[in-house]
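Q: what does this look like with heme C bound?
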Amino acid sequence: MHIPSRLQGFLRMVPAWLVIAGLAGGIAQASAATPAERYTQFCAMCHLPGVHGAPKVGRHDDWLLRLKPGLNMVYRNAVEGMPNTAMLARGGTDLSEAEVRAVVDYMLAATALPVSVLRDAARYDRFGLSDRDFIRRDTSRDGYLSRSEVSADALLLKNFARFDSNRDGRLGEAEYRNAETALERERIAATVDDATLIAAVKQALAAVKGIDFEYVKFEVSNGVLVIKGIVGHADVAVRARDVVKRIAGLKSINNLLVSGDQISWD
Ligand code: HEC
C-alpha cells in the first residue's frame, strides 16, 4: 500500500486534532488558522450542503469517482479550479497552494474514505500523467488509451493508428497529445463558412445528453464559436467541448457553459 506520507500522517492526526479544535471552540484566532478552520470559513458553504454539485465532506459516494484520476488531480482541481463549475481556483480564496492542499487533506480525512480508495488513487498518481483529457478518458486506469476508450470520438478513432507511433495498439499520453495537437491544427486549417459551421455545431450539441437549447445558446462568427448557458452537470460542458472540437473549420472554441445543478427547472 502506498499513501503519500503527508496524508498518512494527517490521517493519524485527525481525531485528536478534531477534539482539540472542538475544545478550543470560540477562542480560535484567525492567525492560528488550521485547515479545519479554513475549511469552515472558505469551503463549507458549498461543501457541507453540497450545493452546485460540490462533493459533500463525509459522503463517500461523492468522492469515490473523483479519486479515480488520482489524488494529484483532486489537489490540482482544488488549486486550479474546475472549468465550467462553481469550483473556482483555490475555492475563490487567496489561500496559498499549500494551504489549499492542507484543507483538501482535511476534507478527505474527515470523509474517512476506505484505505483501498486512497491506495488506488495513489497508484494512479504513479503514472505521472498530467493531461486532463487523457486522464478522464483512461477509464480502465492503466495509463493508456485503448481504441474502445476513444470509441466515442470518431475522428480520433479513425486516426488511431496514425498517432500510435510505437505501434503498441494503444495511445500513451505523449501520443495522445500529438494527436490532439495535429487534429486541432487540421481543424483550424479547414475553410468552412459560418452557416455550415452553425449547422454542424447545432447537430453536434443536440446529440449531447443534457444540452437543452432553451438554456444553451451559441454563436459562430468568422469560425469562432462561443457557447453560453447552463447545463445540469459539469460533465455535460466537457462533453459539449469534446464534440465541437472535432468540427472542421472552427478556428477557436470558447466554452462558457456553467454547471447549475442547483437550479430548479420548474
Ligand atoms: C462556491 C462553491 C464552492 C466553494 C466556496 C468551494 N468549492 Fe470546492 N467544489 C465546488 C463544486 C461545485 C465542486 C464540484 C465541481 C464539479 O465537479 O462539478 C467542487 C469540487 C471540489 C473538490 C473535488 C475536486 C475533484 O477532483 O473532483 C475539492 C477537493 C474541492 N472542491 C476543494 C475545495 C476547497 C479546499 C475549498 C475552500 C478553499 C472549496 N472547494 C471551496 C464548489 C465550491
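The chain has a mean pLDDT of 88. The radius of gyration is 21 Å.
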